[in-house]
Amino acid sequence: MTKSSYHHGNLRPALVEAALEIIADKGVSGLTMRSVGQYVGVSHAAPYRHFKDKEAILAAVATEGFNGMRDAMTLERDAVDPSDLTGRMAACGRAYIHFAVRHPSHYRVMFGPATRNKMRHPELLGASLEAFGILLNGIEEARAAGLLRDLPTIELGIVAWSQAHGLSMLLIDDQFE
């Protein structure tokens, strides 16, 4: 079978996984469509059958990351008694940070400049809003119970997100001993 007729049974997820491996090794700047195809063992044109360009494959990586973060936050939150609203919010924060530390390549792409324009990638936009929505819902519940100051939910969400994001980046970059 020639490379031009080679068929990889599950190429799209294999390309996303290859992108993650390349990013872990060389950073986002080291990722090319050619390198992704080469890593998977397909022609340099094969990735273009699934992704328009590098931005599109990075959007797929980020979407996968946001979905994983959402799932981790939901799992941790749901393991806490529903009446313990502050415990549920803390569980979401811990899950966020643990996800970032365990998946730094995903995390860097999720919040890096390559995926800044989420409007061009509706699936990525939806996944990022779902993940952020878990935090906002927790804030709404805590505010309704009188546990948080009466500030706009989005402002409280940005403060909480900034703290979790900052700590995540410090941990990823080994700023703590």
Question: What's the story with the biggest beta sheet?
Answer: none
Shape: elongated
Proportion in β-strands: under 5%
Low-confidence stretches: 1-6
Question: How many distinct beta strands?
Answer: 0
From N to C, what is the helix and strand string? HHHHHHH
Number of helices, where a helix is a run of at least 4 consecutive DSSP H or I residues: 7
User: Whole-Å distance between the termini?
Assistant: 52 Å
Helix content: 55-70%
Describe the 3D structure:
With 177 residues, this protein is an all-alpha fold. 66% of the residues lie in helices and 0% in strands. α4 packs antiparallel against α6.
Write the layout of secondary structure elements.
Blueprint: H1 11-26, H2 33-40, H3 54-78, H4 85-102, H5 104-110, H6 122-144, H7 153-172
Helix pairs in contact: 1-2, 1-3, 3-4, 3-5, 3-6, 4-5, 4-6, 4-7, 6-7
